[in-house]
Amino acid sequence: METRKVQVTGGSTYTVSLPKTWATDNGISAGSVVEFYPEEDALLLTPQGEEDRTEGTLDITELEGEQLMRAVVTMYVSGFDIINLETSRVTASQRRAIREAAQRLVGLEVIGETGETVILQDLLDSSELSIVNAITRMRLVALSMLTDSITALVEDDDDLASDVIERDDDVDRLWYMTSRVFRGVLRDPSTATEVGLGREVCFDYHTSARQLERVADHATKIAELALDLDEIPEEAANGLEELLSRANEVIETSMDALLEEESEVANRNANAARREVDDIDDYSREVDNRVRELDPQQAQLLGLVVDSLSRASDYGGNIAETALQKAAPKP
């Protein structure tokens, strides 16, 4: 760590010198322009950016299918605004994988194609992306998926189960967008200014978005099990519906705490959610014991459903922990 003494010039202007090593490494010299970003009691300084769009290139010669789609997602989440995918010859299957990946991502579109290159560009800027709106939407979709997955199971509704599985893409799309914005905030102070949130708050929202994405994954898992199960006994169905109700309440209460501006209210809601998680663990074991008395194959599948609902509750508890940290006094 280096220190500098603040001086006064012209009677009213405060000045401080820059470390020479840092200035040299970042191409700063006499006449260069730097940018300042206030963040509570800190002041962040960066060289002024010369390019508005960050461009990256990836060789996709050895990539196909899911691996290629994952590569596109990684480039997007990492913060590239323009993604050049290059190879000696782009195959039809590669083009399909690239387009499918783009459809899973908010704002990403194919803007150019040749025989050797596919160019993707993010058409939204950071000021248009709201983490708060994203996690609010994730909350609604994930909870509706969880509820509908149990409804599909209890009512033996395969169409509803299939619909739940399809909705998982909506949650993933919002999760990737949240991750992109969060990484941008960490990397570039100007992004934090555009988003309008501090880096700590962005971290709290990003962490909670991950928990909601996992809730949606377990809703999908339950829906897939519902496709394999026929009608289930009423006693088991009642236990699962009660477990669902409790899990949903934990997640709702935790999210209320996370988005609450008043610290006292946030702490009260978060602690209430944490206490309920412990009660749900006990009730989950009770429901699990009920389903174990059924036909072995049915018992095994329903046991997985119980486990997924219990895990969804735990993810709500994790959001409550994050809400407590967000509401805590700052050191």
From TrEMBL:
Organism of origin: Halomarina salina
Q: Where is the SpoVT-AbrB domain?
A: 8-53
- What Gene3D superfamilies does the database record attribute to this sequence? Phosphate transport system protein phou homolog 2, domain 2
What PANTHER family has UniProt attached to this entry? PHOSPHATE REGULATORY PROTEIN-LIKE PROTEIN, PHOSPHATE-SPECIFIC TRANSPORT SYSTEM ACCESSORY PROTEIN PHOU
The record, for SMART domains, names: SpoVT_AbrB (SM00966)
The record's annotation in Pfam families points to: MazE_antitoxin, PhoU
InterPro entries to which the protein is assigned, alphabetical: PhoU, PhoU-like_sf, PhoU_dom, SpoVT-AbrB_dom
- Taxonomic superkingdom: Archaea
Name of the molecule in the record: PhoU domain-containing protein
